[in-house]
Specification:
This protein is an alpha+beta fold. Helix content is 16%, strand content 32%. It is built from six helices and 20 strands. Strands 1, 2, 3, 4, 11, 12 and 13 form a seven-stranded mixed β-sheet that branches. It has a six-stranded mixed β-sheet with strand order 5-6-7-8-10-9. Strands 17-16-19-20 form a four-stranded antiparallel β-sheet, with no helix packed on it. Strand 19 and strand 20 form a beta hairpin. Helix 1 crosses helix 2, helix 1 crosses helix 6 and helix 3 packs parallel to helix 4. The longest helix has 21 residues. The radius of gyration is 23 Å and the shape is globular.
Length: 426
């Protein structure tokens, strides 16, 4: 590939390309911000958890983060946003408003990348034992003004824990209430059903309610295709999400990795991509699960190399659950003018251009940025990385070897945030 000489630097910009990708993460935070007689300031300290979470989030960098077992205090929700997500130069995360009907001590919450997404609606789906929340998001696409964009509906639940018939029946009731609500709300949509389901096998009534609901258009699919009796079953060691530790510290459950409690299920439209949102094959992961630590701590021998050591240590210390993630392909183009970034960004260059692109931009701090020129099929023709300078930056991009036509100039920062400008070469 030929390199492109660019005498400049750019500003950190929101993500945009012909087919964008969103990373979704679901995580049980283990009594985040909640003090009980078993989860205390000593064995579940929120300030320590903040540091663990920053390490985990910096590794995964989700666009949508849904959580369980969070304090019902809105101040704690804001604390996580300010002390974990919007730190280290990151500014774009927002949270959902808080609603509560069941008045549980531990609740769900959603955080999202506001450069790419807008929260349209938040509803309580059901409130038996604990609330299950519905969050409807839409993508900041460039055809938004004409009423066209991509919607994603996250349904987040924490089902009743425990073994035995009575607990299975409680989970079944919560699942039935959820599916009945969705039938009234919207039969066909880009649904993600996610959370800590506390189910021990694929045969449990709650799980079956989700996958084999009587209305076929509302049935969910499991991207992992891992059906069976998950509990303490070596055959499903690659799919277990709990526990991260063999021993308990009084707050965390022990027993090692032997249960699959945490899920992201998808509607058929997401699996098939019929509504501008598509699951990317093989992108579903349990972060920190290498399949080699059945019934033991995930950081025990043999060495777990599925994630960096600091991330592995943070996963063990933060919660007894592992987060699950997947990637979605969005068949839309992000509107470059719909960012609510607080910084002022000024970019100027002549367009159309012939021979040489000359431009300028004002920067408030240095940054390393990666530049690419793509054709309208998304193929990269030139790329180069540069260190920016504070203040005014001059741009000089030679285009003499480029054929005439329409192109895209894409600039990406170290956090994988990108922006695209249209470019016509004469």
């Amino acid at each position: 590939m030929r390199t492109l000489t660019i005498l400049l630097t750019f500003f950190i910009l929101p993500a945009l390309y012909a087919q964008d990708t969103l990373k979704v993460m679901q995580y049980n935070l283990l009594y985040y911000g909640v003090t009980t007689d078993f989860c205390t300031a000593s064995n579940n300290n929120i300030n320590k958890k903040d540091e663990y979470l920053k390490t985990i989030v910096n590794h995964t960098r989700p666009d949508i983060l849904t959580v369980n077992e969070m304090s019902s205090s809105p101040a704690v929700h804001q604390h996580l946003l300010d002390q974990v997500l919007n730190t280290g130069g990151i500014y774009y995360y927002r949270k959902a408003d808080f609603k509560s009907v069941a008045e549980s001590q531990i609740v769900n919450m959603l955080f999202y990348n506001s450069n790419k997404l807008v929260l349209k609606n938040h509803l309580i789906v059901q409130s038996f034992l604990r609330d299950i929340d519905l969050y409807e998001l839409y993508y900041r696409s460039n055809d938004l003004e004409s009423g066209d964009t991509a919607f994603i509906i996250c349904v987040v639940g924490h089902l009743k824990a425990g073994t035995g018939t009575s607990n299975e029946n409680y989970r079944k009731i919560m699942a039935e209430n959820t599916m009945d609500f969705l039938e009234e709300y919207k039969e066909e949509a880009n649904y993600l059903l996610m959370g800590d389901f506390n189910v021990y096998s694929a045969g449990e009534p709650a799980y079956q309610e989700f996958l084999n609901y009587n209305n076929p258009s509302l049935r969910f699919q499991d991207p992992e295709n891992a059906y069976g009796n998950w509990h303490s079953n070596f055959a499903f060691r690659n799919h277990h999400t709990q526990s991260t530790s063999e021993s308990s510290n009084g707050c965390k459950s022990g027993g090692g990795s032997d249960d699959r409690f945490d899920f992201i299920l998808t509607s058929a439209s997401v699996m098939e991509g019929t509504r501008s949102v598509k699951y990317i094959d093989d992108s579903y992961q349990t972060i920190g699960q290498d399949g080699n630590h059945f019934n033991t701590s995930i950081n025990a021998l043999p060495i777990n190399t599925s994630v960096p050591y600091d991330v592995l240590s943070a996963l063990v210390a933060n919660s007894d659950h592992l987060p699950v993630v997947l990637d979605l392909e969005i068949d839309k183009i992000l509107d470059i003018y719909t960012t609510d970034r607080p910084d002022k960004l000024r970019i100027a260059f002549a367009n159309p251009v012939s021979g040489m692109l000359h431009g300028s931009l004002q920067m408030d701090k240095p940054a390393i940025l990666h530049f690419e020129i793509l054709d309208m099929m998304g193929r990269v023709h030139y790329e180069v990385s540069f260190m920016t300078q504070q203040g005014m930056n001059r741009i000089t991009i030679p285009l003499t070897k480029m054929r005439a036509g329409n192109y895209l100039l894409r600039i990406t920062d170290e956090m994988k945030n990108s922006r695209i400008k249209k470019l016509m070469i004469l």
